[in-house]
Automatic annotation (TrEMBL), chain A:
It comes from Paracoccus acridae. This is ABC transporter. It comes from the Bacteria. PANTHER family: CARBOHYDRATE TRANSPORT ATP-BINDING PROTEIN MG119-RELATED, GUANOSINE IMPORT ATP-BINDING PROTEIN NUPO. Coiled coil: none annotated. Residues 7-238, 254-499 form the ABC transporter domain.
UniProtKB/TrEMBL annotation, chain B:
CDD domains: TM_PBP1_transp_TpRbsC_like. InterPro entries: ABC_transp_permease. Its main location: membrane. It comes from the Bacteria. It is found in: Cell membrane. This is ABC transporter permease. The chain crosses the membrane at residues 31-53, 60-83, 89-107, 119-143, 174-197, 209-233, 253-271. The keyword Oxidoreductase does not apply. It is a multi-pass membrane protein. The lineage of its organism: Bacteria, Pseudomonadati, Pseudomonadota, Alphaproteobacteria, Rhodobacterales. It comes from Paracoccus acridae. Keywords: Cell membrane, Membrane, Transmembrane, Transmembrane helix.
Length: 506, 295
């Protein structure tokens, strides 16, 4: 390894109307280094890598790649210069085959047969098995990521950018990903790794550049710091520790038995005799890789999908044939994963959005007429209690940042004092500060004697919050296990392991 | 008795206008654009092709001009939907109404005149019929084997991903829309220049709508488009023969038959396809959605 940097950014700045996305950002990535870009949502990580990949042009500053000035006009130019990128939201084409997807990501793809052979070669070298003829729509999340990675590897990149690659993987799949990255780094490729998962950065990255509000605030060796100090650097202050005290399990609130539902769509998952019991003051964590029935389970519990009579009982009363409104009145509330479009209407004001779920339970609608002042007062109460940063309750939901809207939609349900609250991915894509606030509110709610079900793909979150844990795998729910003493490895095995991945032996 | 071979040759002719229009729309939709203006582009092609053939005396020149006119009249649709982010359904419907009105206005001088005759190709079939049949494997090859076709399918399947990889979504779509217009123009001209040999207002008689239905029917494949066009053409020819043979069924019912058959098959196939996305080949993922590059 040489000391010459693969990539260097000097004084990069970028402004959008009203926002300074990046300000005087400088950092250096050495060959064979796994370099983490760490920061909260909105800290400017994505804008920065988009500039390196040629999707956005910087307003000021300059970049150097392999000693050459790097000013890509578009992603093709960036790829030609040796930059490859794996996107956070997969940039794949569902209806096309693996080989076609890879060909689209290359400048001059070889003829089809040769390309298939090269895909097979690379997937063997790096232990990432893939069939080039499969359609992407039939692949699991982990397999889709392999397509993206192989697409990058075929171009022999000098700099590989990975944007939150592990958010959709099981712990085992993540381990294999890091083994692959390690091997790649060993060949001298520099890797720029974006994440806000502190533990994985601590264990796997050689260097971390920490961004806050678009500026570099620190640069360190993450292996020498605790997750807590890294988090403090990220948010610019100490994190409040989560308080789990003051809870004990009481009487049974929610009982689900023999809940089976067919898949709602071709891509959906059927629920297969799901059974669970939830007690007062308890938090039940349900983990699983995306697409194993999370959305379907939430829909069945919230009342969007009806199920067979007697399959869902709330304090002994049968809920299974009731719609969402009747279930809310009875005290069974839910907050779905997709905040914009499912949990909230993007173009409605926050006041109108509170009416949608709190109308009956908080008596905001009288004799068919909306009580505007009561609705506004409730929306203001949620904004105040959950520290939602917004000009006021008249703001449209879509104008809020992801974290703020998430605090609002969770707060809207929590403030209705539910008997049982079901949440799906409560802190997905939310920065560390807002996530801590949401988690604490769920713990407080359980502390007041409500039952909470947390469906999440973030296993750290489940371990932090829940008393018992169930795994959801292809629509089947495992028996609950207590979370005390449970390790991530054990959870990973419960989730169905690594889906056939193996580490390459070179 | 009806001679099956003669009937098949008639079927080939009867299905040609729809085959052209539907192959064009197939490419447009695989690029992710829903253009409901096929009927309008066809009628503009029918008039411009007929007028050119009549005044120049050269029918083949008529087809060339019809293709050009079809592509030109599709351009406002391309500008509206790709640059001004107009709704594709509304813009497409407007294109149909625009084309019908435009053709009716400028068609007055050529009403009642006869088109020049064309030299027939092999088997006594028009050369344009052969061209249409040749377009089926050509478009199949373009979509499934060529690099440009792969990019076009990528743009139609997931325009955000295509953009992220550095492809120019707008340019691909505008080219596809122009190609669709040209194909619809040729299809329309076949009706006026090669079949009816006259110009009458509204003479495409819903063929553009059938072409749109056939693209769905085809499951967005070139071979499927051919099957759909032959089904429609076959029932058309058959009902004409039955009318000529004096079958005691009201003429209106017989004339309805091709449209009815298309609708029935379409419904049957859609019901089956509802769950078949995993099997592949169904509607392009970004079909009908506006693309706005978020930077």
């Amino acid at each position: 390894m040489t000391d010459a940097a693969v990539f260097q950014a000097r004084g990069i700045g970028k402004s959008y109307p009203g926002v300074r996305a990046n300000d005087d950002v400088s950092f250096t990535v050495a060959p064979g280094e796994i370099h983490a870009l760490l920061g909260e949502n909105g800290a400017g990580k994505s804008t920065l890598v988009k500039m390196i990949y040629g999707l956005v042009r910087p307003d000021e500053g300059d970049m150097v790649l392999n000693g050459q000035p790097h000013q890509p006009a578009d992603p093709r130019a960036a790829r030609a210069a040796g930059v490859a990128m794996v996107f956070q939201h997969f940039s794949l084409f569902d209806a096309l085959t693996v080989a076609e997807n890879i060909a689209l990501g290359m400048e001059n793809p070889p003829p089809r047969r040769e390309l298939s052979a090269r895909i097979a070669q690379v997937s063997q070298d790096f232990g990432l098995p893939l069939n080039p003829a499969r359609r992407v729509v039939t692949l699991s999340a982990g397999e889709r990521q392999r397509v993206e990675i192989i697409r990058c590897l075929l171009q022999n990149p000098r700099l590989l950018i990975m944007d939150e690659p592990t958010s959709v993987l099981t712990p085992q799949e993540a381990e294999l990903l890091f083994a692959t990255l390690r091997k790649l780094a060993g060949h001298g490729t520099a890797i720029l790794y974006i994440s806000h998962k502190l533990e994985e950065i601590r264990t796997h990255c050689d260097r971390a550049t920490i961004l806050r509000h678009g500026r570099v605030v620190d640069s360190c060796d993450p292996r020498e710091h605790s997750a807590r100090t890294l988090a403090a650097m990220m948010v610019g202050g100490e994190m409040r520790p989560i308080d789990r005290s003051g809870r004990q399990a009481g009487e049974v609130l929610l009982q689900v038995k023999g809940l089976s539902l067919p898949a709602p769509t071709a891509e959906g998952t059927a629920l297969k005799s799901v059974a669970l019991t939830l007690r007062a003051g308890e938090i039940l964590g349900i983990g699983g890789v995306a697409g194993n029935g999370q959305d379907e389970l939430l829909a069945a519990l919230s009342g969007e999908t009806r199920s067979a009579p007697g399959s869902i009982l709330l304090e002994g009363a049968d809920m299974s044939r009731l719609g969402p409104e009747a279930r809310r009145t009875a005290g069974l509330l839910a907050a779905p994963e997709d905040r914009l479009g499912h949990a909230a209407v993007p173009d409605f004001s926050l006041t109108d959005n509170t009416l949608l779920t709190a109308g009956a339970r908080k008596q905001l609608v009288r004799k068919g007429l909306i009580d505007r002042s009561a609705a506004r007062a409730f929306a203001e109460a949620v904004i105040r209690a959950f520290d939602v940063r917004t000009p006021g309750p008249g703001t449209a939901a879509k104008a809020l940042s992801g974290g703020n809207l998430q605090k609002f939609v969770i707060g809207r349900e929590v403030m209705q004092a539910p008997r049982v609250l079901v949440v799906n991915q409560p802190t997905w894509g939310v920065d560390a500060g807002a996530a801590a606030a949401v988690r604490q509110s769920l713990l407080d709610l359980a502390g007041q004697g409500a039952g909470v079900i947390v469906i999440s793909q973030d296993l750290d979150e489940i371990l932090e919050l829940s008393d018992r844990f169930c795994a959801l795998n292809e629509g089947r729910l495992s028996a609950p296990v207590p979370t005390d003493g449970l390790t991530l490895d054990q959870i990973g095995l419960m989730l169905g392991g690594a889906h056939g991945m193996e580490v390459a032996h070179l | 008795m009806i001679d099956p071979i003669a009937l098949f040759l008639l079927l080939l002719s009867a299905s040609t206008p729809i085959l052209f229009a539907a192959l064009g729309e197939l490419v447009v939709e695989r690029a992710g654009v829903l253009n409901l203006g096929v009927e309008g582009m066809m009628i503009v092609g029918a008039l411009s092709g007929f007028a050119t053939a009549y005044y120049s005396g050269n029918a083949f020149l008529g087809f060339a001009v019809a293709a050009l006119a079809g592509a030109l009249v599709a351009l406002p649709f391309a500008i509206l939907t790709q640059f001004l982010m107009s709704n594709q359904v509304a813009s497409g419907l407007a294109l149909t109404l625009f084309g019908l009105g435009l053709a009716a206005l400028f068609g007055k001088p050529v009403e009642g005149v006869k088109a020049p005759s064309m030299a027939a190709g092999p088997l006594g079939l028009n050369w344009i019929v052969w061209l249409g049949l040749a377009m089926v494997p050509a478009i199949w090859w373009f979509l499934n084997r060529s690099r440009t076709g792969l990019i076009l399918r990528g743009v139609g399947e997931n325009h955000d991903a295509a953009h992220a990889l550095g492809y120019d979504v707008r340019r691909v779509r505008i080219a596809a829309i122009a190609f669709g217009g040209a194909m619809a123009g040729i299809g329309g001209a076949f009706i006026s220049v090669a079949t009816v040999l006259q110009w009458t207002e509204g003479m495409t008689a819903g063929a553009g709508w059938i072409a749109l239905a056939i693209v769905v029917f085809s499951n967005w494949t070139a071979v499927g488009v051919l099957a759909g066009a032959w089904l429609f053409g076959g029932v058309t020819v058959l009902q004409l023969r039955l009318q000529a043979a004096g079958v005691r069924v009201p003429v209106q019912l017989l004339s309805m038959a091709p449209y009815l058959a298309t609708i029935i098959v379409l419904v049957a196939i859609s019901a089956r396809q509802k769950f078949s996305r995993r099997a592949g080949g169904a509607a392009p993922g970004s079909l009908g959605q506006d693309f706005h590059a978020l930077r």
